[in-house]
Amino acid sequence: MRKKVACIIPVRSNSKRIKNKNLVKIKGIPLIKYICKKIIKSLKIDEFFIATDDVKIYNAIGNYKNKINFFKRSKKSSTENVKSEVVIQEFVKKHNDFDIIVFVQATNPFINNAHLDKALLKFKKEKFDSLLSVVKSHSFLWKNKKFTYSLNYNYKKRKMSQNLNGYFIENGSFYIFYRNNFLKYKNRLHKKIGTFEMEKKSMIEIDNYEDLELVKKLLN
């Protein structure tokens, strides 16, 4: 039997660093609508939900309301420092008719429907329990303690960057997992974890005004 897939996009009001962040204009439309526009054509997602405490944010998606459902998140899950796992738990407890959850964060506008469909295909084919979007990097890493030291190379025998062992950076764009596993582990990532690589520019999430301006330039 085919497993049903739900996509949940959590957004809340009262963002601190950028006022009304989910409503700022990206290429002339609100950020939340821009994200929806990029993913709504997915062929592998059965239903979409915006989880928010503010109906104004949901209304900002305009004509996409006929394809994307409203999920009222609680006051508890809408506070500034709460983990996203709280709103995920609210959703999966109420919606037991879905097997797989795609959790999309609206702070990364570089996502599109092809990313999600390819990631879902990989998730199922390689039998992962959970999956996250990443960017691969070959940067030279250093860390400060009492003294500064290199993490991923020997500075005395410096290599070409392309010859370094690559590592993955979590870009916060999306996560995929089974509903039942989430109820068991209370975490979006668990057991056998897979990755889906996105382009380097997707490392930039909109967290402050500097990020916002950089994202606008890259998208243009």
Describe the protein in words:
This protein has helices spanning 31-39, 55-59, 84-94, 113-125, 179-185, 209-219, and strands at 5-10, 25-26, 29-30, 47-52, 68-72, 100-104, 130-137, 142-144, 148-150, 167-178, 193-197. The chain has 220 residues and is α/β, with parallel strands linked by helices. The chain has one domain: Spore Coat Polysaccharide Biosynthesis Protein SpsA, Chain A (Alpha-Beta Complex). The strands form 3 sheets. A 7-stranded mixed β-sheet has the order 5-4-1-6-10-7-11, sandwiched between helices. Strands 2-3 form a two-stranded antiparallel ribbon. Helix 2 (55-59) links the parallel strand 4 and strand 5 (68-72). The longest helix has 13 residues, at 113-125. The model has no long low-confidence stretch (mean pLDDT 91).
Task: Please tag this protein with its features.
single chain, 220 residues, alpha/beta, Spore Coat Polysaccharide Biosynthesis Protein SpsA, Chain A, seven-stranded mixed β-sheet, two-stranded antiparallel ribbon, 6 helices, 11 strands, 25% helix, globular
- At CATH level 2, the architecture is Alpha-Beta Complex
Strand order across the largest sheet: 5-4-1-6-10-7-11
Q: Please, how many domains?
A: 1
Strand content: 25-35%
What does the overall shape look like?
A: globular
Span of the ends, CA to CA: 43 Å
CATH superfamily: Spore Coat Polysaccharide Biosynthesis Protein SpsA, Chain A
Largest beta sheet, briefly?
7 strands, mixed
Rg = 19 Å
Oligomer: single chain
